[in-house]
Design brief:
single chain; about 230 residues; alpha/beta; two-stranded antiparallel ribbon; 7 strands; globular; disordered N terminus
Length: about 230
């Protein structure tokens, strides 16, 4: 996906580097739409490949141009995402890749943001390990920690019936993607997600998510951002 440039200078510019957990349901586009509803502008771009870890983007596998895209524009955040990363060996690789990406990210004027995802439903006992991997990586590069996976757990505490997983019990449903975008909206803009209208869009069209459910998601996103500070807290 190429950057969507507004007529006026944007307030925020965000590049996503990741895989299908970013491009399912168009997370970058969902984030931009939420920002518009809140009176903000977030210009988004992404480099995603199915099944990729960050190390794959770093070494240029599969014709990814992640490094060129990082270096090719001025960004505010570069969002780094890979799979659940619950194993120690995967955590070590994530840290290694993030450290090597940190220099070009900083040179572009940006901060790295570690996007915490979630385990597959069958591995849901590993949520804490997933969080630890992305938190530790954020600390290692003095970057931001974006606790999207924890927002899923907060939303389920409020309403256990929410269908945040998609049909394969791993990728997000449109509801799950919307909640992730709410977390990111707050992190990027500093504005309270609870102040947004109780309506949503999906794939550029009005969503069927009920206003009541949207309010639950907004509350979950805000509570999670309060509970998990962006900066490293060793």
């Amino acid at each position: 996906m190429r950057a969507s440039e507004p007529a006026l200078s944007p307030r925020h510019r965000v590049l996503f580097i990741g895989n299908s957990l970013t491009y399912f349901n168009d997370l970058p586009g969902t984030l931009a739409a939420i920002a518009t509803m809140g009176g903000d502008t977030i210009v988004v771009s992404s480099v995603t490949r199915p099944g990729f870890a960050l190390i794959d983007h770093l070494v240029g596998a599969g014709k990814t141009d992640a490094l060129e895209r990082i270096r090719g524009a001025r960004w505010e955040y570069v969002v780094l995402q890979q799979g659940p990363t619950s194993r120690v060996i995967d955590r070590d690789t994530l840290i290694l890749a993030a450290k090597q990406l940190d220099e070009p990210i900083r040179a572009s004027g940006a901060r790295p943001a570690l996007y915490m995802v979630w385990p597959a439903l069958v591995d849901s006992a590993n949520f804490d390990r997933v969080r630890t991997s992305f938190q530790e990586t954020a600390c290692q590069v003095n970057g931001d920690f974006w606790p999207a996976g924890e927002a899923w757990r907060a939303a389920w505490r409020a309403d256990p019936t929410l269908r945040l997983y998609g049909p394969d019990d791993f990728h997000p449903s449109s509801l799950g993607t919307y909640l992730v975008a709410l977390v990111m909206y707050e992190r990027i803009t500093g504005h309270d997600a609870r102040s947004l209208p109780a309506r949503a869009t999906a794939a550029g069209a009005p969503s069927s998510i009920s206003p009541e459910t949207i309010r639950v998601l907004q509350e979950a996103a805000h509570a999670t951002n309060v509970a998990f500070p962006s900066a490293c807290m060793r």
